[in-house]
Amino acid sequence: MPQRTFSIIKPDAVRSGLAGTILSEIAKAGFGIVAIKKQTISKHEAEGFYAVHRSKPFFGSLTDFMSSGPLILMVLEKENAIADLRKLMGATDPAKAAEGTIRKKFATSIEHNAIHGSDAEETAAYEIGYWFAGYELL
Ligand code: GDP
């Protein structure tokens, strides 16, 4: 059974012209694109998306960054999509990310780390519903 996950190409990567390269890596890894859109999100929308991190010291900076320019919102699909995308992304901190991962290659800091991917089935379902309407997911 294919599984769906939610992903963002973050504003740092879009600004650096890396969206196409990252999308190509995602496609090469066997993910299908269920839905995709380029959007600039508001600070308020970023705060809602990252609400789980509200108490962290980096919350203000993270939500400023995520609302600083266009990003690419995506719903991706394949067998084992959630775990496989996390593996393709690499660790949050690019200094700790494995060789060949997207964050190792393209992230510039622990915050400006190029890509987001859901970390579990429940978060994937919440995040897909946060950014996409049902009619966009057919
Ligand atoms: P992820 O699941 O690997 O994206 O990591 P988390 O859910 O822990 O954090 C969400 C996002 O917050 C990360 O992708 C980073 O953009 C940012 N972030 C995480 N940890 C830190 C930190 O220690 N400092 C800063 N400035 N940003 C962080």
Please provide a written account of the structure.
This protein has 138 residues and is of the alpha+beta class. Helix content is 40%, strand content 19%. It has helices spanning 11-15, 19-28, 43-49, 59-66, 81-89, 102-106, 121-131, and strands at residues 3-9, 32-39, 71-78, 115-117. Helix 3 (43-49) crosses helix 4 (59-66). The mean pLDDT is 98. Residues 58, 61-62, 92, 110-111, 113, 116, 119 line the site of guanosine-5'-diphosphate.
List keywords for this structure.
single chain, 138 residues, alpha+beta, Alpha-Beta Plaits, 7 helices, globular, binds guanosine-5'-diphosphate
Mean pLDDT: 98
Helix content: 25-40%
What order do the strands of the largest sheet run in, or round the barrel if closed?
Answer: 2-3-1-4
List the total number of helices. Answer: 7
Ions, cofactors, ligands: which are bound? guanosine-5'-diphosphate
* C-alpha end-to-end distance: 16 Å
Topology order in helix (H) and strand (E) letters? EHHEHHEHHEH
**SS-based class:** alpha+beta
Number of strands: 4
Q: What oligomeric assembly is this protein in?
A: single chain
Question: What is the compact description of this entry?
Answer:
This protein is 40% helix and 19% strand. The chain is an alpha+beta fold. The model has no long low-confidence stretch (mean pLDDT 98).
Secondary structure topology:
Layout lengths: L2 E7 L1 H5 L3 H10 L3 E8 L3 H7 L9 H8 L4 E8 L2 H9 L12 H5 L8 E3 L3 H11 L7
Antiparallel strand pairs: 1-3, 1-4, 2-3
Bound molecules: guanosine-5'-diphosphate.
Guanosine-5'-diphosphate binds next to helix 4.
